[in-house]
Amino acid sequence: MEFTKGHGTGNDFVILPDPDGALDLTPGLVAALCDRRRGIGGDGVLRVVRAAKHPEGAALAGEAEWFMDYWNSDGSFAEMCGNGARVFVRYLLETGLATPSGAALPVATRAGLVRARVEGAEVAVEMRRPRLYDTATATVGGLTLTGAAVDVGNPHLVCALPASLDLGGLDLTRAPDVDPSLFPSGVNVEFTTPGEPVEGTDGHVLMRVYERGSAETLSCGTGACAVAAVALRDAGRETGTMTVDVPGGRLTITITDDTCWLSGPAVLVATGEITLPPPS
Asked: pLDDT tens, 152-192?
């Protein structure tokens, strides 16, 4: 099977071309591909399939040719992946499956339609505006923090650290404990501290994230959007541009009255072939 490896600020993916939806992609196969010792390694799998050929993309086939079939590294589904969408678009353009134009490129996802624009090494995707809808707590390493629950097409819990705590000192080797009644399908948990001012933006936040289905990752695009929305709210703003630094690099998020743009680098690093493991 052919594959491409790509990443957005260190959030890495195994990309599988499957235009006609012929591949029998299973949770076990996804987990094997994402295994960093016995497979290719990645935070998730991006299957590139025509929207008309995928049952979850067919409803959007009239608006987008391609459906981003995203799976977490443990073989579970995810509704949306912001960095994955940016890497997905980079793949479409570099392989000639889509052609650049002045208009934004539409891509179908489980969370609906997203649009992308490319500016050199940067790829920006337009997603739904983050919706803050509740408060909840997360417990990590014996520390319980209150955070904001945010819907970005997938669920997030954004927890600001007290000034006395070091973001880098958090132990994220295991999932934070959260209320399963509020997050029955799990949740991505972001931990944040303020950063130094960045010229041209309305604020700067440092972030680490534990992603459901993938553990701690170097970056989470939808998580950065959730963090930006919370930071703007705390600053008394509903719209604006935020810089969010993740362990894998820097992302820029612009939130308007009705949408959210996530921008940052998206890179393809390798192509090859892999022999599929035997069915388990």
From this structure: 999 999 999 999 999 999 999 999 999 999 999 999 999 99
Tell whether 254 is in a known binding site. no
Flag whether 131 is marked binding.
no
Q: Which residues are catalytic?
A: 81, 220
The reply, when asked if residue 96 is annotated as ligand binding, is: no
The CATH fold assigned to 2-126+266-273 is Diaminopimelate Epimerase; Chain A, domain 1 (3.10.310)
Residue 119: the pLDDT is 86
CB atoms inside a 10 Å sphere around CB 174 = 11
Distances (CA, A) of 17 to 96, 192, 241, 246: 12, 36, 34, 29
The two domains 2-126+266-273 and 131-258 share their CATH topology (first three levels equal): yes
| CATH fold for domain 131-258 | Diaminopimelate Epimerase; Chain A, domain 1 (3.10.310)
Q: What's the pTM?
A: 0.93
Is 37 annotated as a binding-site member? no
**Residues constituting the chain:** 280
Contact by Cβ (8 Å): 277, 75: no
DSSP character string of 116-158:
EEEETTEEEEEEPPPEEEEEEEEEETTEEEEEEEEESSSEEEE
CA dihedral 93, 99, 105, 107 (to 10 degrees): -60
Q: Check whether 72 is labelled as a binding-site residue.
A: yes
Mind giving me the DSSP string for 48-102? Answer: EEEGGGSTTTGGGTTT-SEEEEEEETTS-B-S--HHHHHHHHHHHHHTTSS---S
